[in-house]
Design goal:
Layout (H helix, E strand, L loop, with lengths): L4 E5 L4 H12 L3 E6 L14 E4 L7 H5 L4 E4 L11 H22 L3 E5 L26 H19 L4 E6 L1 E3 L8 H10 L5 E2 L3 E6 H14 L5 E4 L2 E4 H12 L6 E2 L3 H14 L10 H7 L8 H7 L6 H14 L7
Length: 331
């Protein structure tokens, strides 16, 4: 691939930071949009041109000038009902504004990072790109915002923009500084703070396969198409058992009935929040965890050549990164 001038949003986050590293290793020039309040830890020491701004800024097209390719990775993630307006503003209006700016700036091709969250869950089966849950059935405002943001990408395609959509499942691996909800589960396991587990399931993929999938989508993806970037469907119990094998720590033995965290979350978000107290368990998160969130990545494997690094290796690298970056107290 020819060396490109690339604009990246979300570069300080988990997927974005791994993508920036891959782009630099391939010899591309990277310009990164960073918010004024962003934690820049993930960009430290990297040869990246940083421009400060927000997705809703009026002057984004000027910031994009001179770049040929846009990777729109940024998204606001929250499962709290109180963040509904911010989710809409960042994910939907921000995406609409950025894609308009890309059109004005003459960006040749955009890879938009959606999520399997926008697709929804297919009961009793693995969803692929042809499946779409009705938007009203998507659990929580985050998933709904990602659905509507993806519709903005489709509208822009209809207006003539060259956009490829990728839908990562659940990435795991290094540079998960925040961490993500799955990274947090790994951390709680390592800190021995997980006595019970819920009967839920995820599609896991190494974050480095996800970012390579972004480059493959840029190179081989079809305009207007979406590609699930995923690998292995696993129950949470199976994931915890692998972590136990890798670390020598004991996996939680007991399954907790869903009604217990659901009740806690309802009290948290509906009762305590109304009293001005900060809730600790998002209701949408528990409702989502009642489902088996399984996906079929065959299209991306066949059409893009998406790699399938063993999930066991990805979990090991996530553990190693958390330990080496002092997320886990030394015993």
């Amino acid at each position: 691939m020819a060396k490109l001038n690339v604009f990246v949003t979300g570069s300080t986050g988990f997927v974005g930071a791994n993508l920036v590293r891959l782009l630099l290793s391939e010899g591309h020039q990277v310009r990164a949009l960073v918010r004024p309040q962003s934690d820049l830890t993930n960009l430290a020491g990297l040869d990246v041109e940083q421009v400060t701004g927000q997705l809703t800024d009026d002057d984004l097209s000027q910031k994009l000038q001179g770049c040929q390719v846009l990777f729109h990775v940024a998204a606001h993630y929250s499962l709290w009902r109180a963040d509904r307006e911010q989710l809409w503003q960042s994910n939907v209006e921000g995406t609409r504004n950025l894609l308009q700016a890309a059109r004005d700036a003459g960006i040749e091709r955009t890879v938009y990072t959606s999520s399997v969250a926008a697709i929804g869950v297919k009961a009793g089966n693995s969803a692929d790109e042809t499946y779409q849950s009705p938007v009203e059935k998507l659990i929580g405002d985050y998933k709904k915002s990602k659905y509507w943001a993806e519709q903005e990408a489709h509208k822009a395609v209809q207006m003539g923009q060259d956009i490829v959509i990728v839908n990562p499942s659940t990435p795991i691996g290094p540079w998960d500084i925040k961490p993500t909800p799955t990274g947090d589960m790994i951390l709680r396991f390592l800190r021995r703070q997980m006595p019970f587990y819920l009967n839920t399931g995820l599609n896991l993929i190494h974050v480095q396969d996800v970012v390579l999938g972004h480059l493959l989508a840029l190179e081989k993806g079809k305009t207007g198409e979406r590609y699930i970037l995923g690998n292995q469907n696993m129950t949470l119990k199976e994931m915890l058992d692998v972590l136990a094998e890798l670390t020598g720590l004991s996996a939680p033995k007991g399954e907790i009935p869903a009604w217990i965290p659901l009740t806690t979350a309802w009290i948290d978000e509906v009762v305590l929040a109304a009293m001005g107290k900060t809730p600790s368990v998002p209701l949408a998160g528990v409702q989502m965890a009642k489902q088996m969130m399984f996906y079929n990545p065959a299209k991306a494997i066949q059409e893009l050549g998406l790699p399938q690094t063993p999930v066991r290796q990805a979990l090991q690298e996530a553990v190693d990164w958390f330990v080496s970056h002092d997320y886990v107290p030394q015993t």
